[in-house]
Amino acid sequence: MSYERILTEDRRLQMLRLLEQSAGYSANAILLGNALEGMGHAVSQDRLATDLDWLAEQDLVRLEEMGSVTVATLTARGGDAAAGRARVRGVKRPMPGE
Fold first, then answer.
1. Could you read off the pLDDT of 80-89 as tens digits, one per residue?
2. Which of 57, 65, 88, 96 has a C-alpha 20 to 30 A away from that of 75?
3. What topology does CATH give the domain 3-82?
4. pLDDT at 17
5. What is the domain partition of the chain in residue ranges?
6. Taking the CA of residue 21 as centre, how many other CA atoms within 13 Å lie in the half-sphere pointing to its CB?
């Protein structure tokens, strides 16, 4: 497995976990980007948008445009993936106890 793939899968898991911890299971892309940077995943807005679109295609999040900001909301399937109850190819599976 390539280093880039490991980073991508971990970044997607962290995005789902951030949403899981957010009020209403939602957060805007700017806040997600800032939180990811604090977790060691500094990414461009383009990369973040691409990841959010991918997560939406997998039915892990729902996206809504609010003016110039994208808001992501965790789906039930996304919550299951964040907790390790469901496996989704392209998202890191959390380790036990994480």
1. 999 999 999 9
2. 96
3. Arc Repressor Mutant, subunit A (1.10.10)
4. 96
5. 3-82
6. 9
